[in-house]
Amino acid sequence: MKVIYKITYPNSKIYVGQDLTDSINYFGSADSALIAKDFSREERRRFTITREILWESDTASNAEVTRKEIEYILLLRSNDPLVGYNQWPKYRTSA
C-alpha cells in the first residue's frame, strides 16, 4: 500500500509526505532543524504528533504517488512557512 500522510505538530503546523511501504513507524523526512526552531527546550521534552493518512492506493505508480503528494501539499499549503514544514514545491505568495 502506498500512502500520502499528514503530520500535525503541537504548534498546528503540518508536513505532508508519501510512504511507498505504508510503514506504521515512518514519520517523514521533514527538516529537523527547521522544526526544532519552533519549539523551546521545555516544549521538546514531551509532545505528541499526529499522522493521518490522506490517500492510499494499492495500484498507483510511484510517479502517481508523487503527483498526489504535490497535490496535497498545495491544497493544504503545507509549503507555506506559516502553515507547514514542506519546503518543496517552493511556496509562492500570490501578491
Short summary:
This protein is α+β, with helices and mostly antiparallel strands.
Can you tell me about this structure?
With about 100 residues, the protein is of the alpha+beta class. The protein has one domain. It is about 25% helix and about 20% strand. It contains 3 helices and 3 strands. It has helices at about 30-35, 40-45, 60-75, and strands at about 1-10, 15-20, 50-55. The chain has a 3-stranded antiparallel beta sheet. A hairpin with a 5-residue loop joins strand 1 and strand 2 (about 15-20). The radius of gyration is 14 Å and the shape is globular. The model has no long low-confidence stretch (mean pLDDT about 95).
Q: How are the strands ordered across the major sheet? A: 2-1-3
User: What's the alpha carbon Rg, rounded to whole Å?
Assistant: 14 Å
* Helix amount: 25-40%
Name the overall outline. globular
Q: Tell me about the biggest sheet? A: 3 strands, antiparallel
Structurally, the number of domains stands at 1
DSSP helix count? Answer: 3
Supply the key terms:
single chain, 95 residues, alpha+beta, 3 strands, 26% helix, globular
Question: Which helices and strands, and how do they pair?
Answer:
Blueprint: E1 2-8, E2 14-19, H1 32-36, H2 41-45, E3 50-57, H3 62-76
Antiparallel strand pairs: 1-2, 1-3
